[in-house]
From TrEMBL, chain B:
Membrane-crossing residue ranges in chain numbering: 307-327
Keywords (A to Z) from UniProt: Kinase, Membrane, Transferase, Transmembrane, Transmembrane helix
Bias kind Basic residues: ranges: 289-302
The protein's name in its UniProt record: Protein kinase family protein
PANTHER family in the record: OVARIAN-SPECIFIC SERINE/THREONINE-PROTEIN KINASE LOK-RELATED (PTHR44167), SERINE_THREONINE-PROTEIN KINASE CHK2 (PTHR44167:SF24)
InterPro entries: Kinase-like_dom_sf (IPR011009), Prot_kinase_dom (IPR000719)
SMART domains linked to this entry: S_TKc (SM00220)
Organism the protein comes from: Terrihalobacillus insolitus
Taxonomic superkingdom: Bacteria
UniProt key word Transmembrane: yes
GO molecular function: ATP binding; protein kinase activity
Keyword Transport: no
Length: 272, 328
């Protein structure tokens, strides 16, 4: 861990140059799209495979899984069903938070942004280990250099492209929370669309009528069009969270990245 | 917020008298008490070499690093002390659990909350503080940054002389990027009045909301049409009445710089003083008594005094007499 000062400094220079390259690559070639699943639920899964295992699989595929557990107003303590929330996010490489519905809007955007930072830090840490040795990590760097690296992480978070698939638990108990969820998602789109990088959002609910998930909104750069589609959500009795995450995973690969970027280019020209 | 890495690192609580020694710079800090806590870590009052300072420590190393980066850019805004000055940045390895906690030490700003100060010192300070804040914001904006999370919790009045200072700069964002940190009530995105892109006008919106908060300490709901709610509230607040046109412009994002808003607010304050003196002129019948300090005022009150004294003495005597009647 302790390296000769001069030597370490040179390595850090190499590292920072490497980071600048990654940054440029991401920016110019649109290679690095961050992929996230955002699960919003209020209870425990009760059907199908273990959601944590599926989340781990998603993370392996480069998709991080974030989970927000929504509490009832009168719930003072964390119900048992919501313990699962943290476990899923942990194995999915994401962030979790349990909140009352009033705080949902602000939480949705902080969770999403923190997860981005976390993923990017993971990437940066890997680079660090490659250049400075397996025991190195961001936290082991001296404060000044850590500051420089964090600046890079922040730059990446601001400029990278992002895909968020929102997965909504539409079981009966969620029904009265759906208007708040809808508002929170519009708010999320306001936050993320202030970034320099581009965004794509999709919304799915589960369980679906015949399938594991039900498409609410196909990939789109903004979420302001969701108010019309939201009331269509139907609620059911079972909560197959695991199968839903699995089905959600496949929604990322469907569109050819190149094509979608071209489409977005057109829409951003229209906006301009 | 539970994060992958952070969840394994236990949250930290330091007790009074505890000592923190930096891993890199080896400075020692004795904890004197807690000053506050937020989303990212806790702030303690500490002492090092007989000097007081504020120490912020967190299990979220990266968040501390980000804040330090911001504080460093504040030092670069030359010739002006915008935020608290940064004194030290380091890590502390917990002797028991072995985890490393990042911290930074900054100047300890002693003062009073804005609302408290205005209540005890008078409404006329509100305008002054607005001008101070607009000055600071102008400097910050000129150097390419936006404050972001502008709210009463992040402001303090230090004295003497009274000066509004920023104590938490965690939301400061480069112009053109997305606002790093915000609080719903002060955020124009929440009110549907604009984007969350870091622009000078973002801070100016929040500034108006800070003023609202003085008169609506419990805040208020945005209702069905948020813009209407804001306009109604503004109209209904007598203390903000004189600033109304400027504040509406700020809420609607019509000021592209703090300087423009400052000019308008100054104009209001200067006019206000003029009209005040005009009112006083009208109230005082003798022509020569133009101002309080006017030389001619010296003699006239003397003539009034005997009469007033007589009334005073009579009142006191009457009071004592009443007491006498009641208690005897």
């Amino acid at each position: 861990m302790v390296l000769d000062d001069v030597f370490e400094h040179e390595l850090l220079d190499i590292f920072l140059r490497r980071m600048a390259n990654i940054e440029e690559e991401l920016y110019l070639m649109k290679k690095g799209t961050l992929k996230q699943i955002l699960l919003i639920t209020d209870g425990c899964s009760n059907k199908g495979e273990d959601p944590s295992a599926v989340a781990a699989l998603a993370f392996q595929q480069g998709i991080s899984v974030n989970v927000i557990g929504v509490l009832e107003d009168e719930q003072s303590e964390q119900p048992e069903g919501l313990q699962e929330v943290e476990e899923i996010a942990m194995s999915g490489g994401g962030v979790s938070q349990i909140v009352y519905k009033q705080a949902l809007a602000q939480t949705v955007q902080t969770v999403t942004k923190q997860a981005m930072t976390q993923t990017l830090q993971g990437v940066v840490n890997q680079e660090l280990k490659q250049i400075l040795g397996p025991k190195q990590s961001l936290e082991e760097l001296p404060p000044d250099q850590r500051g420089e690296v964090m600046e890079v992480v922040e730059d990446l978070g601001e400029t990278c492209d992002l895909e968020v698939l929102v997965l909504i638990d539409a079981s009966a108990s969620m029904h009265n929370k759906l208007p708040t969820v809808q508002e929170a998602l519009i708010d999320l789109s306001v936050s993320l669309n202030a970034r320099i990088g581009r965004n794509r959002f999709a919304i799915y609910s589960f369980p679906g009528k015949r399938k594991d998930i039900n498409k609410v909104l196909d990939w789109s750069p903004k979420l302001d069009s969701i108010s019309s589609v939201f009331p269509k959500l139907t609620s059911g009795g079972i909560t197959p969270t695991g199968p839903a995450i699995k089905a959600a995973m496949y929604q990322f690969g469907k569109k050819s990245l190149l094509r979608s970027f071209r489409n977005e280019d057109e829409s951003s020209i229209e906006e301009a | 917020m539970k994060m992958n890495q952070a969840s394994r690192k236990p949250e930290l609580t330091l007790s009074q008298g505890g000592v923190i020694k930096g891993k890199w710079h080896k400075n020692r800090y004795t904890i004197k008490g807690e000053l506050g806590h937020g989303a990212i870590g806790k702030v303690y009052l500490c002492e090092s070499n007989g000097k007081q300072a504020a120490l912020k420590i967190s299990e979220k190393s990266s968040s501390i690093t980000t804040e330090v980066n911001v504080l460093k850019t504040f030092q670069k805004v030359q010739g002006h002390r915008l935020g608290p000055s940064l004194l030290d940045v380091d890590d502390w390895v917990h002797p028991k659990n072995g985890h490393s906690y990042s911290f930074y030490v900054m100047e300890y700003l002693k003062g009073k909350p804005l609302s408290f100060f205005i209540k005890s010192h008078g409404e006329e300070w509100l305008g002054i503080f607005m001008l101070q804040l607009l000055d600071d914001l102008a400097k910050l904006h000129e150097s390419g940054w936006v404050f972001g999370d502008l709210k009463p919790d992040n402001l303090i009045v230090t004295y003497a002389p009274p000066r509004l200072r920023w104590i938490d700069v965690g939301g400061t964002t480069q112009i053109g990027r997305s606002i790093k940190e915000y609080t719903e009530f002060y955020d124009r995105g929440y009110w549907g009045m604009g984007s969350r892109k870091a622009e000078p006008s973002y801070d100016l919106f929040a500034l108006v909301m800070v003023m609202f908060h003085l008169y609506y300490p419990n805040r208020f709901e945005k209702g069905r049409s948020p813009e209407k709610t804001l306009m109604n509230k503004l109209h209904m607040t007598p203390q903000l009445k004189k600033f109304e046109p400027c504040l509406i412009k700020a809420l609607q994002g019509k000021y592209s710089s703090s300087k423009q808003m400052k000019r308008d607010i100054s104009a209001v304050l200067m006019n206000q003083q003029k009209t005040d003196t005009i009112k006083k002129k009208q109230q005082t019948p003798p022509v020569k008594r133009a101002t309080h300090q006017g030389k001619s005022t010296v003699r006239k009150p003397k003539k009034e005094h005997p009469f007033m004294e007589g009334v005073g003495i009579f009142a006191v005597v009457l009071l004592f007499y009443t007491f006498y009647l009641i208690f005897s």
